[in-house]
Design the sequence.
């Protein structure tokens, strides 16, 4: 128990020497979605390598930089590049930055990712607002002794993604003329992509999107009482019966094409957030 508290304290001590601000919004930028970083009025950029107890980002399309600054005048901290279970990290390591965001003062977490679409109404490049998730990673970041200082042993998950924040995102999308869909995201461990039978199974159990991230961070955010909004870019389509062979390069290309829209959406969403929601 002592260990996590100590690690967090050391990380916070290091960061507070570099940065004075207290971010209210945490952002995790997924595969091919790094350009939101350019919208941040930067106070400080710190490489993960320099930060005590931070893992290193090894995934393709993930930079590995923690950015402090403001978007639309609101104080944010953004992870440019995230960690994945398939990289060999434990979920405690994967979610460690979310622990740090909490201690820094974040009240809202915005997570983005690239995913495979299984809903017949989706097409490549669609932006989907995640309304719920299914954890099929076979593991959970809260396993082990509970850190009572951070949250309860058995956190409630009746609203993993905040309904009010979802409404705001959808309103912003309508105003911008960006059509968003809603969907259920299922997380698997990866790193291989799904077999045709797996796509069929995932669709049957109620998933619209499949990916290898996001759920661990959301579980830890909710454990700490942070409200979450999740946005996914559909980078490939895996309808049961018609999966096409796929390369990571294609995934990143589609994510990058959708990126300007997602960036605009997140930027305007942050602008719309009222200060009282960030208390």
Sequence:
């Amino acid at each position: 128990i002592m260990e996590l508290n100590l690690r967090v304290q050391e990380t916070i001590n290091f960061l507070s020497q570099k940065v004075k601000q207290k971010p209210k919004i945490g952002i995790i930028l997924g595969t091919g979605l790094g350009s939101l970083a350019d919208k941040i009025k930067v106070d400080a950029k710190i490489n993960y390598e320099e930060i005590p107890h931070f893992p290193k980002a090894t995934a393709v399309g993930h930079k590995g930089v923690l950015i402090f600054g403001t978007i639309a005048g609101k104080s944010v901290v953004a992870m440019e590049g995230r960690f994945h279970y398939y990289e060999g990290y434990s979920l405690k390591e994967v979610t460690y930055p979310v622990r740090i965001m909490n201690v820094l003062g974040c009240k809202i977490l915005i997570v983005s990712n690239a995913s495979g679409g299984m809903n017949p109404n989706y097409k490549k490049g669609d932006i989907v607002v995640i309304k719920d998730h299914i954890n099929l990673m076979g593991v959970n970041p809260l396993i082990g002794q509970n850190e009572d200082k951070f949250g309860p042993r058995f956190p409630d998950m009746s609203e993993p993604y905040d309904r009010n924040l979802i409404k705001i995102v959808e309103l912003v999308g309508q105003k911008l003329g960006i059509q968003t869909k809603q969907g259920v995201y299922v997380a698997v461990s990866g790193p291989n992509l799904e077999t045709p039978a797996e796509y069929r199974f995932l669709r049957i159990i109620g998933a619209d999107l499949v990916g290898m991230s996001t759920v661990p961070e959301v579980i830890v955010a909710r454990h700490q009482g942070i409200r979450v909004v999740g946005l996914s870019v559909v980078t490939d389509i895996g309808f049961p019966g018609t999966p096409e062979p796929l390369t990571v390069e294609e995934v990143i290309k589609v994510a990058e094409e959708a990126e300007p829209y997602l960036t605009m959406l997140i930027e305007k969403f942050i602008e719309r957030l009222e200060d009282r929601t960030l208390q």
About this structure: The beta strands are 25-29, 41-47, 65-71, 74-80, 108-117, 127-135, 180-187, 209-211, 227-237. Residues 86 and 116 are 17 Å apart (CA to CA).
